[in-house]
Structure formats: structure tokens, C-alpha cells
Amino acid sequence: MRIVMATQNPNKVREFSELLGSRVELVPLPSGLPKAPETGETFLENARQKALFYATYVEDPVLADDSGLVVPALGGEPGVYSARYAGEGADDRANNDKLIRALRSRGLRQAEAWFACALVLARKERVMMEVEARVDGLVHDAPRGERGFGYDPLFSPQGEARRFAEMSAEEKHRFSHRARAVRKLLARLPAPGAGGWV
């Protein structure tokens, strides 16, 4: 089963390929496509926008993910703006630095937080599947670890002292919001040869 991931981010394609396993051949978006709108107020709304937008450009089903970090003590920031928290085009380091400053400005060394993931699978003009998942934990005011991407150096899942960036990919997949969402998605995908992709 071939699915187009609604991103050209190689880290994201690699992570989802690992999670989806051999049932799915995951490929990135073709280059040169316009940027999909992301004007939703929730992760699910944004994922739906992206999936339907790119499904008009490609033949295969499109899987769109919208994920992010929610910190209630910061009013829910960075939330749906997680990827551009420090501004359009900001890199992971800039986003992490802004989050650290926000925590420290409130006198916080750590705070309760969760990572959320919404996945939407669409083909042509139709949404075929939607799933959501989250992982609770703590966000910290200093990074640790060299692995992962995004806010992984700042986040430790519930019951773990280590940050996501200190874990191997296999260890992170035991906890992560994306892994939980993908498990829900895989449970609903049609079995090979079963059809259902008209």
C-alpha cells in the first residue's frame, strides 16, 4: 500500500515509515507543490486541511499529520503553532529557546505538558480516516539529548526521567504521540488485498 506523506521533512517521513512498518510504502510529497493552508484552531483541523489539499495533487492516498506540544501553564502554547512558535521558518533550536524563556519568565523549571498528534488520511476530495492521540509528561527548561527533533530535548513522558531526545527510536516509539496515533490508524487500515481504497 503506497501512501504519500504530506511533508517533505525527511525526519518526519523516516519516523512515520518506521512506525507504519512494511504494510505501507510511505513517500514524501513531490517537490514544487504549494504550501497547504494551516488555519485551523486544532491539530485535527490542520491535519484535515493538509490532507485534502495535497490529495488533489497526487493519485495515492495522502496522510497528513499535525502534531505539537501543549503546555497548560503557558496558556496552551505552543499548541498548533509548535512548528513556527518562534516565527515562520524558525528552526527547532529557536522554538526550544522561546519555550525555555517562556517557562523561566513564569519561574518554572518544569511544567506539565503533552504532545498531541492528529492524523488524517484522504484521497481525492474525501477524508478516509481520522485519528488522534497524545502522550502526557513534563516539559523542562533545559535541553538534554542529541536524538529526535522538535521539542524532544525538552520533553520527558510520564513515568520516564529521560527526554525523548535521550531515547533510541525504538524506545521513543513505546511512548510517543505519533506511535499511538499510528497504531490506531493501522488498526483501521484495510488488510492487504481487501480493497476499500476506491
Give an overview of the whole structure.
- With 198 residues, the chain is of the alpha/beta class.
- The chain has a single domain, classed as Maf protein (Alpha-Beta Complex).
- 29% of the residues lie in helices and 25% in strands.
- The chain has a six-stranded mixed beta sheet.
- α4 packs across α5.
- The relative contact order is 0.15.
Question: What's the arrangement of secondary structure elements?
Answer:
Layout: E1 2-5, H1 10-20, E2 25-28, H2 43-55, E3 62-70, H3 92-105, E4 110-123, E5 126-140, E6 155-157, H4 169-175, H5 177-188
Parallel strand pairs: 1-2, 1-3
Antiparallel strand pairs: 3-4, 4-5, 5-6
Helix pairs in contact: 4-5
The CATH topology, please?
Maf protein
The residue fraction in helices comes out at 25-40%
> Could you name the CATH class?
Alpha Beta
Return residue spans where pLDDT drops below 50 for at least 5 consecutive residues: none
N/C terminus separation: 13 Å
The domain count comes to 1
The largest pleated sheet is described as:
6 strands, mixed
Strand order of the largest sheet: 2-1-3-4-5-6
Sheet/helix structural class: alpha/beta
The overall pLDDT, averaged over residues, is 92
Binding site for substrate: 7-12, 67, 149-152, 172, 177-178
EC number: 3.6.1.66
Subunit structure: Homodimer.
InterPro entries: dITP/XTP_pyrophosphatase, ITPase-like_fam, RdgB/HAM1
In short:
The protein has 198 residues and is an alpha/beta fold. It has 5 helices and 6 strands. It has a 6-stranded mixed β-sheet.
